[in-house]
From TrEMBL:
InterPro entries to which the protein is assigned, alphabetical: MFS_trans_sf
Native source organism of the sequence: Penicillium bovifimosum
Compartments it resides in: Membrane
Location (main, coarse): membrane
Record field: transmembrane: 20-37, 139-160, 180-200, 292-310, 330-354, 410-430
GO cellular component, one term: membrane
Protein topology in the membrane: Multi-pass membrane protein
Presence of the UniProt keyword Transmembrane helix in the record: yes
Listed SUPFAM superfamilies: MFS general substrate transporter
Name recorded for this polypeptide: Major facilitator superfamily (MFS) profile domain-containing protein
Keywords for the protein's UniProt record, in alphabetical order: Membrane, Transmembrane, Transmembrane helix
Molecular function, one GO term: transmembrane transporter activity
Length: 452
């Protein structure tokens, strides 16, 4: 039997199949994960409260006593959640026997397979595999990335929708009974979602021409060339030879660290305004709903407006878009930190969401700074910086929240003051990037879709 290249109908069917299955997998997995967040924090708080107030354990009802909202309990809760982010932990079953901090060790299980970052990367590659260019002789790599960016944009929207729906569902289930109910429900949904992963088709090399030597520009991330030392040497050489890579690394590293502050918004809002975790999770929906609008409408609209009225190259316009997004994040985090009333906090959440498309525009901008054959190296370096930032961010913001509790209620917003300062450093790094001309087609397009 001879191999044949897929027809247009075959490609459309494959694209629909991969997109639909990935979307369902993303939705159910993230719905289950975010369904468990408020009850998990409540369970952790109850455990800590019992341990700290052991003398009154017979009369204490964890979560209903004001002492559970005291600095001692909330400081330990922030520390637990900070390191939990680093180790990707799960709650301990034997909370009355084993120290709660042992949940940090369960993150070791994710060393097999790599956890969510690897899953996200595999899904992104699968989408890029099936959204292949129709004619390799006439379509550039950047065109492929534009098509893939639109597809990934839709998948990210599914992620946000899952977060939006999970919050009220979790709050409703908690109101009906124990916080363990939605937590166990999330495990059931997460387990059921794994079945979908077995339905995903193989996409590696799907649209590649069946030729012995096609001089392919794009390589699968699963292709192995050389040993680890050689790969490290190539990445180091890439960074050294491109002066813009250092600020790009700083941008990805610091932005990734700052994103960890979002993991403490639930505890922060609950403590500062005296809300239950269920109510806080509902209020935080404001940010998610606004982020969905920003991601699908406002960011592409801003990109389109800059293209129409902007001066300079596409790369220069992308840089201005990045700087605008960074500035919105600076003011957004400062607004979160200084919001004295619940109404101001809700407005600050909506304002912060205006900068939620920052990662996407940075990806577009960074890609435009390198030659097409360097894109894989760029994303490898950026992914490494983000991973390091994710490891550092959780413990760092946990410590900042602890300091805020120690200084008093007026300093509870310290983590978000720091987050605003971090994004100011991101702006400085972006400003240091120098745009140089590249030998590319004049019809080069940005990664962000601009048809709004």
């Amino acid at each position: 039997m001879t191999d044949r290249r897929p027809t247009a109908m075959d490609k459309a069917k494959k694209q629909w199949e991969v997109m639909a299955l990935n979307a369902l997998l993303i939705f159910f997995m993230n719905f289950a994960i975010f369904l468990s967040v408020p009850p998990q924090i409540k369970i952790f708080e109850d455990i800590i409260c019992r341990k700290i107030h052991l003398d009154n354990a017979l009369n204490l009802h964890p979560g209903d006593d004001d002492s559970c909202r005291g600095a001692l309990v909330q400081t330990e809760l922030a520390r637990i959640n900070g390191w939990k982010t680093t180790f990707e932990a799960l709650p301990s079953i034997w909370s009355d026997v084993l120290p709660l901090r042992l949940v940090w060790l369960s993150g070791l299980l994710r060393s097999i397979g790599g956890g969510e970052p690897v899953i996200d990367s595999i899904m992104a590659v699968m989408v890029m595999d099936v959204f292949e260019e129709r004619d390799r002789d006439t379509v550039t790599l950047l065109t492929l990335l534009i098509l893939s960016a639109v597809a990934l944009l839709r998948l990210h929207s599914v992620f946000i929708v899952a977060k939006i729906l999970a919050a009220p569902t979790s709050a409703a289930v908690v109101a009906l009974g124990s916080p363990w109910t939605p937590f166990m429900l999330s495990l059931v949904i997460l387990s059921a979602a794994q079945v979908l992963s077995f339905l995903l088709p193989e996409t590696l090399g799907y649209a590649e021409p069946q030729e012995p030597d096609d001089n392919r520009t794009r390589r699968s991330i699963t292709e192995k060339k050389g040993n680890l030392i050689q790969k490290f040497a190539l990445s180091a050489k890439f960074v050294v030879q491109n002066p813009n890579m250092v600020p790009i690394i700083i941008v990805n590293l610091v932005a990734s660290i700052t994103k960890s502050s979002s993991n403490f918004l639930l505890q922060y809002s609950s403590t500062r305004y005296g809300w239950s975790y269920s109510l806080s999770s509902l209020v935080l929906m404001i940010r998610e709903a606004s982020s969905l609008i920003t991601y699908l409408v406002l960011t592409p609209a801003a990109s389109a407006a800059i293209r129409r009225i902007g001066r300079g190259s596409v790369t220069a316009q992308d840089k201005r878009l990045c700087q605008a997004g960074g500035l919105l994040n600076v003011f957004g985090y400062f607004s979160i930190a200084t919001a004295a009333t619940p109404v101001l906090f809700m407005l600050a959440l909506a304002f912060l969401s205006l900068g939620s498309g920052f990662d996407t525009v940075v990806t577009s901008f960074a890609t435009s700074l390198v030659q097409p054959h360097q894109i894989v190296s760029l994303h490898l370096v950026a992914a490494t910086a983000k991973s390091i930032g994710g490891l550092v961010g959780g413990p760092l913001f946990a410590r900042l929240m602890q300091v805020g509790f120690e200084l008093g209620s007026g300093w509870l917003g310290m983590p978000y003051i720091a987050a605003g300062l971090f994004f100011f450093a991101v702006l400085l790094a972006l400003s240091s990037i120098r745009i140089q001309s590249r030998n590319l087609d004049e019809t080069e397009q940005p990664l962000l879709p601009t048809d709004v």
